[in-house]
Amino acid sequence: MIQGRFPLRSSQRGMGLLSLLLAGVVVGFLVLVGMQVFPTAKEFFAIRKAVQRAAQEGGSSVADIQRIFDKAAQIDDFTAISGKDLVIRKVGDKMQVDFAYEKRIPLFGPAVLLLDYRGSASQ
After folding, report:
1. What are the two backbone dihedrals, phi and then psi, of residue 5, each rounded to the nearest 5 degrees?
2. How far is CA 6 from CA 3, 13, 14, in A?
3. Do 104 and 92 touch, CB atoms closer than 8 A?
4. With a threshold of 0.90, does the pTM exceed it?
């Protein structure tokens, strides 16, 4: 029996064409979703920073906290929430500032990705 120059097919390793295409579709979908989620996550971190700054610098006045937050919103250029959307309450002798909002990202057809952002800060 003479062995050929080519190894047997069962000894080959790697992905088949169908597996490669399927992996490409999955990776492409994840990259597409990630590209749409990244700006909302960046906006959330800017909002959280603005809430922390407003809680620290706002003193004991609700209007001052809202004004400081709105000024930070203009500087950091986010529009998801405003100072009027903040829930500001007094806890003991300190002010507690909470916020919550949703972002809807359309994917395809009727499918939508819903992101629920929440945060809080206190003095």
Report:
1. -80, -15
2. 8, 14, 16
3. no
4. no
